[in-house]
User: Fold Methyltransferase domain-containing protein from Halosimplex rubrum.
Amino acid sequence: MKRSLDEHAARFDEMAADYDDDESDEYRACASLVVEHADPRPGDTVLDLGTGTGAIALPLAEEAERVIGRDISEGMLEEAREKATDRGLSNVEFGEGRFREPAVPDDADVDVVTTNFAMHHLSDAEKRETLDAIAGLEPRRVVLGDVMFFDGPDPDDPFYSPEVDDPATVGTLADAFTAAGYALTAVERVHDQVGVLVAERVVPVGEPAEPVGGPDAADAEGGS
Ligand SMILES: C[S@@+](CC[C@H](N)C(=O)[O-])C[C@H]1O[C@@H](n2cnc3c(N)ncnc32)[C@H](O)[C@@H]1O
Assistant:
């Protein structure tokens, strides 16, 4: 991480009120793909890390049972809470939490984890630690939209701020997912330096796989 957590939080606190006015086409495309690929079931709990003003958490709250948004910037979180109230959403909760310590409530069983345009603030080692922490929650799916290099960094046209951001290559991220026990099931290239990776949990040998169609499918078919 090129800046401390407090420095990142202060930077986002400062830009929180105007954050939603400053969106690029690539950012918008990436956010739409993250929401689309997250595709939660009606009974699911979603954890959105680096949630910001709720660009991912709020639309997912229309589909999931519960959405937990975590961020280090109180300014960004306050904007997200206001938007949730305006939209009449009561199943989304925004609070302080970090990538590697997401502060998931004890009563939450996380099914899907999303994160958009946020993990590039971490070093590659910190990204690996984050994916390990996420894997510890055992979600069936993780959707990562972010600045990432498909062809390597382009110093003449960086899609990020080299002084504060630290994007990884797609290969590094794919390896980190694999090491954490997740297999990539989709890779969306939005731009040479922006993409979305979708990863599904690899069920360890000996652990019962979830029936096709979700946990209720066996009951619906009369299974026991
Ligand atoms: C560019 S914004 C993206 C916000 C939102 N996900 C979106 O798609 O609009 C990045 C967010 O990541 C948050 N962030 C940065 N480092 C973080 C960390 N270590 N843990 C949690 N959030 C972090 C920032 O406070 C900021 O709100």
Observations:
- Strands lie at 45-49, 66-71, 92-96, 112-116, 141-149, 168-169, 182-191, 194-201.
- The CA atoms of residues 70 and 102 lie 7 Å apart.
- The longest strand covers residues 182-191.
